[in-house]
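Here is one chain, start to finish.
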Amino acid sequence: MSNPADGPANPGSAEESVDAALTTVEHQMSLLWRRARSVSHQLSRQVHPDMEPAAYGLLSVIRKEGPIRLTELASCIGVGKPSVSRQIAFLERIGLVFKEADPLDGRAQSIRLTPMGEEKMHQVQDARRQVFRERLAEWPMADIQTLAESIAKLNATYERDGFPTDGAP
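Its structure:
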C-alpha cells in the first residue's frame, strides 16, 4: 500500500499532472493576453483616436520613468529603436510628448510627457484602475494578493531569462 504523502504510485501520472496544469496555464495566459490587448487598444483610443496600443505602452513607461532617452525606452519595452522612434514621432505630433536636450549629454535627447500627455495618462490610468476594481470586486483580498504575487513571480522568472525589467515594487 502506498502512502499519499510519497506522491503518486504511478510516476507517469505526476508528469501528466504537470502537463495538464501547464496546458491550462498556457490557455488561460493566452486568453488573458488577448483580453489585455483588447483593453490596451480601448485605452489607447481614449488617449487619442488614432493611437496604437504600442504608443500607449510607451506613454506608460515615460510616465513611470520620467525623462528617458529613446534607446532606454526601446530597451524598457523590448522592441527596436525604429519602432519606438515612429511611435514617439506620432506622440510628439499630437502633443503628448516632447523632446529636450538630455541634461547629462547635450547631444542626446530625453523624451517626457507634456502637461496634456500627463493629464490624458492620469485619466486613462484611473479608468484602468477602476476596471480592475470592478472586475475583482467580488474577490477576497487574499485572492487578489495571491494573484499579484503569482504574476510578480512569473514576471521575475522572465526577467531572469533576460526580458526587460519593470522596476516597480
